[in-house]
UniProtKB/TrEMBL annotation:
Protein name: Calcium-binding protein
GO molecular function: calcium ion binding
Cellular component terms (Gene Ontology): extracellular region
PROSITE patterns the record matches: HEMOLYSIN_CALCIUM (PS00330)
Record Pfam families: HemolysinCabind
UniProt main location, coarse: secreted
Keyword set, alphabetical order: Secreted
InterPro entries, per the entry: Hemolysin-typ_Ca-bd_CS, Hemolysn_Ca-bd, RTX_toxin/Mannuronan_C5-epim, Serralysin-like_metalloprot_C
Superkingdom, taxonomy of origin: Bacteria
Organism encoding this protein: Rhizobium redzepovicii
Subcellular location: Secreted
């Protein structure tokens, strides 16, 4: 069923069928209902309830909140789309304060795609994929990072969208391809351990100490190159209990320099990082 928003009401209600919902370029409240739905929220600060079913939601520009519900869902936090063709996407650098989105996927094996801005992603139950299109997320001229609230090393994955890889730079993505060779495969070289023993691996997880910045972490390892990803505990979030309150993912862009693009709130202890493996890092 095709459903379009109207200027007379900010509320858009779907059905329990498989709906295609086009919202307005205003602040909308969208309740898709059951069924396998496609939702295009467009511009505006929107609240979207996708409901049960295997749904695909494009939040559009603006600061949006998505509640996915049960089912295996695909959630995009932002992006601009040509009418009736959701796969023709261009990167948008929003103005300050825009595109700070919240994605809550609920049950199911979900894919949550972060965009620019200070996004907050919650995968919910079951194994989820947290996809990053840009290693330099920013609002205006200020760097921000995406926050993942519930990453489970036993079943979740970080997925980097590499430019000119797989789908032909579909989203204007700018990660470097460090897969084993094909879209969706794990990272080609991986290290987990003491900083001083890391030598040139493309994903490095540091488990012996924390750092105050990505650049400090990059300086502590050897033979890092642009495109490498470093995972470390952030000493700036050290609490009174003596535990760091999360891990940081940083992208190396030059010698001894890296900048954060994601923060993982629930990996509280240094020991939590020891459970990360190459299978937690993929490229598309």
């Amino acid at each position: 069923m095709m459903i379009k928003g109207t200027d007379s009401s900010p509320f858009i209600n779907g059905s329990d069928d498989n709906d295609t919902i086009y919202a307005r370029e205003l602040n909308d409240w969208i309740k898709a209902g059951g069924g396998d739905d496609w939702v295009w929220a467009q511009a505006g600060h929107d609240v979207i309830f996708a409901g049960d079913g295997h749904d695909i939601v494009y939040a559009g520009d603006g600061s949006d909140t998505i509640h996915a519900g049960d089912g295996d869902d695909l959630l995009y936090s932002d992006g601009s789309f040509k009418a009736f063709n959701p796969f023709e996407v261009r990167r948008v650098i929003p103005h300050s304060g825009e595109s700070d989105d919240r994605l809550d996927a609920g049950k199911g094996r979900d894919t949550l795609v972060a965009g620019d801005g200070a996004d907050v992603l919650t995968g919910g139950e079951d194994g989820d994929a947290f996809v990053f299109r840009f290693h330099d997320p920013m609002v205006g001229t200020t760097h921000w990072y995406t926050t993942v609230t519930d990453f489970d090393p036993k079943q979740d994955r970080f997925v980097m969208d590499a430019g000119d890889f797989g789908k032909g730079d579909l989203f204007g993505a700018n990660f470097i391809n460090h897969s084993k060779g094909f879209p969706g495969e794990f990272v080609d070289t991986f290290y987990n351990g003491e900083a001083a023993k890391a030598h040139g691996q493309h994903v490095v997880v540091i488990t012996d100490r924390g750092f105050t910045s990505g650049s400090a972490a990059a300086t502590a390892i050897h033979d890092e190159v642009p495109g490498d990803i470093i995972v470390y505990h952030d000493e700036k979030t050290l609490g009174q209990d003596g535990k760091t309150h999360g891990a940081t993912l940083a992208y190396v862009d030059s010698a001894n320099h890296a900048h954060a693009f994601a923060h993982v709130d629930n990996l509280h202890d240094m020991s939590d990082l020891t459970s990360l493996t190459a299978e937690n890092f993929g490229f598309i």
